[in-house]
Amino acid sequence: MLLHMVSQVSLSYLIHTLFSHEDVDDEMQSTELQFKFSTISAATDNFSEANKLGEGGFGSVYK
């Protein structure tokens, strides 16, 4: 009986840990950088094709 209870608690903790995204969300919010559009536009020479490295799942990638 005690072994069953311990295994249930352990399993519940494991499932909660695996499927909890709260820590990841907090981490992502604290590492986000925000730039003004004008800064990015100037850095990429107004999104020039000469500065385009390729395209990915989130759009074009510029150097």
Explain this structure to me?
- With 63 residues, the chain is α+β, with helices and mostly antiparallel strands.
- It folds into two domains: 28 residues; 31 residues, no CATH class.
- The chain contains three helices and two strands.
- The protein has a two-stranded antiparallel sheet.
- Strand 1 and strand 2 form a beta hairpin.
- It is rod-shaped, with a radius of gyration of 22 Å.
- The protein starts with a helix and ends with a strand.
- The mean pLDDT is 80.
Please give a handful of descriptors for the protein shown.
single chain, 63 residues, alpha+beta, 3 helices, 2 strands, 56% helix, 14% strand, ATP-binding
Q: Give the C-alpha Rg.
A: 22 Å
- Helix count? 3
Number of strands: 2
- Unreliable runs, pLDDT <50, ≥5 residues? none
What is the string of SSEs from the N terminus onward?
Answer: HHHEE
Distance between the termini: 62 Å
Largest sheet: 2 strands, antiparallel
Number of domains: 2
Strand content: 5-15%
Question: Kindly state the mean pLDDT as a whole number?
Answer: 80
Structural class: alpha+beta
Shape: rod-shaped
Q: State the strand order across the main sheet.
A: 1-2
List the helices and strands and how they pair.
Blueprint lengths: L1 H18 L2 H10 L5 H7 L8 E5 L2 E4 L1
Antiparallel strand pairs: 1-2
Short description:
By secondary structure, this protein is α+β, with helices and mostly antiparallel strands.
